[in-house]
Amino acid sequence: MDPVTHGLTGVMLSNLFPRKKGTLLVALFASLAPDLDYVTRFWGTEVFLRYHRGITHGIGALLLVPLLVGIAARRAYRGRLLFFVMLSYLCYGVHIAMDLMTQYPTRVLSPLDWSAYSLGIAFIIDPYVSAAIVLAILFSMRKSVNRRLASLICILFLIVYLFGRFYIKGKVEDYLRTELDEYHYSLYPLPNDFFRWWFVTRSGDLYKVGFVDLLTETVCVKRVLNYTERIPEIKESKQLRTVRNFLYFAQKPYAEVKRQDGETIVTWHELSYGFFPGDHFIARVRFDRMGRVREEYFRF
C-alpha cells in the first residue's frame, strides 16, 4: 500500500489502545518505519526498486525494529515497555501484511530468504481500503462513538474486502484457464476494478498479455511476445547495473530489441505493469554500432 494509507492505518490502530502519552506517535512511526528504505531513492530509481520492500519488510526487521521502537518510547514517555512494544509490533506487522496484498514484490522472509512474495489481490493504491480507514478515524473522533469498536469494524471490513478480492482473483484465473491453453498464468489487479484483471501467460518462450473480464466473460489478448536471449546485446545488457537492479525487482521481465540509425536499443519491460500506457517500469540500454554501451537508464 502507499505511505499515506500506512500512516492512516497507524492512526486507526492506535484507537485500539488506551489513550496514553505517545500512543499515537509510536503507532504512526511503527506503521511507517518499514518504508524507511525510501532513502535508497537518493542512489537512483533502479536502486530504490532493488531495495524497497527488502530488509525493512522482512522477518528480521519485524522481530527487531518494533522492540527498539518500544524501548525508545518507554524511555521517552515513561510508559510500560510491554504496552509500547505490543503497539509497535502490531503496526509494523500490519504494514508488512498490507504490502503483501499488492502485486509489488515483498521480501518478507529476509534476511533468511531473499525471495519475493506477493498475493497480488489489490492495487498499490486502493481507494476502498483508504476510505474505510479514514471513515473509521473520523467516526472515532465523535464522543458518542466507541473508537475501539469503530476500528474493529474497519478491520473486519478490510479482512472481508481483501478475502473477497482473493476469491474473485481465483474465479478469474479459473475462467482464464478455460479460454487460454497456456503453461503459466499470472493475474494482476487493475486500479479501482474488481472483475477486470491484467494477465500474463507464458508457454515456453511465448508470452501473452492482456485483459480478462469475469463480469462480461471476455478475454482480450493485447500482445503476443516471443522472448529470446540469442541476441548478444540482450545478454550483455543483463550484466549492466541498471538492468541487474531491474531484473531483481521484475516478476515478468521481457526484452525488446530495436535497431535504428546504427544503434541497438534493448528495452526491458516489466509485463506485470504492462497495462500502464506509455513507457513505464522499463530499463533501456543503447549500444552504438560497435556494440559499446552509450546510455542506460530506468523509467518508472
Question: What is the topology?
Answer:
Elements: H1 3-14, H2 23-32, H3 45-51, H4 59-77, H5 81-101, H6 127-140, H7 147-179, E1 184-189, E2 196-203, E3 206-213, E4 218-226, H8 232-237, H9 241-249, E5 253-260, E6 263-270, E7 282-287, E8 293-299
Antiparallel strand pairs: 1-2, 2-3, 3-4, 5-6, 6-7, 7-8
Description:
The structure is a single chain. The protein has 300 residues and is an alpha+beta fold. It folds into three domains: 123 residues, no CATH class; 58 residues; 72 residues, no CATH class. Strands 1-2-3-4 form a four-stranded antiparallel β-sheet, with helices on one face. A four-stranded antiparallel β-sheet has the order 5-6-7-8. The radius of gyration is 22 Å and the shape is globular.
